[in-house]
Amino acid sequence: MNKFSIDQMIKYLEEIFPQIRGKYSILKLENCLSEVQLVATDANLRPGNTISGPTMFELADIAFYLAVISLTGSGTLALTTNVSINFLRKPQRSNLIAVAKIKKSGRQLVVGDVEIFSEDMSQLVAHAIFTYSLSPNRS
After folding, report:
1. pLDDT tens readout for residues 32-47
2. Residue 1 within a domain
């Protein structure tokens, strides 16, 4: 099983998801945990001068994917099978930080959650619960 450093993970993500280049920074990557920062721009805003729901969902999904890969290593096909996200308050127009934690990992399913904060970490703006399915043929 091949684990990634933060620099290796950034390179890996940009290879498999080139559309996210420059949009996210990985702040922390540990076994079963990731912390990812959205580098917010005007493209992330919706009317009302707030970060859009789809942007927050993408941030949560990337953060959880990183937590899963930190656990399972490279060569893992991990797919979102279920997600529920609650938008708790209007985020400030600033960068957002997602903290993803794996709660349980089995042979085929990984379950955990993601909390999204305003950049200063003072306000929880969204909370998501994820289930990922792992390929049974992973290396």
Report:
1. 999 999 988 888 888 8
2. no
